[in-house]
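Why do we care about 3D structure at all? Because function follows from shape, and shape follows, mostly, from sequence. That is the central idea of this module. The next example makes it concrete: a single protein chain, its amino acid sequence, and then its structure expressed as tokens.
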Amino acid sequence: MGYHPPSLVSLIENLSRLPGIGRKTAARLALFIMRQPEDKVQALARSILDIKEKIQLCSRCHNFTEQDPCPLCRNQERATGVICVVESPGDLMALEATGVFRGRYHVLGGVLSPLNGIGPDNLNVKELLARLESEEVREVLLATGSSVEGEATANYLADLLRDKGVRITRIAQGMPLGSDLEYVDEATLKKAVNNRQEA
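And the structure:
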């Protein structure tokens, strides 16, 4: 790429480090950014710097926030006695976008993965237990993913919470909406049958 300006090459290289962005997509993005008015490019650069300067983790739920505690934890209308445990702030954002869950959240910061050296002490498990002591919690909804690690984490937490006097629930898993049976893997089909509901 010796014939490209070094600043363009640098932008392409930096964009290609983003997840899911290959070199061609990075080049398209870089060229798009170059064509934008300077104020739009400065706003983009400022927003990238802002997340590094302003974002922190909420001391209660461990979600991303600019204020501690976060707006979800401060919102008294959400104090329903239900805590939904998720793996990451991205999972919280996905659930929140549905508008279905109106309780509080707790972000673990990952899942158990012994092969990668991630045990309970590397996650926000102690903090979850502390919340059960300090808040009036009736139910803990385990909303970890359906990966082997996500399932192991949910099982670990369910065992840990069993004697804490709270209801322990797990999000239902199974058939994705709009999918055909013949294209769904066996494990998903098995979960869909096991988690069947009244029609």
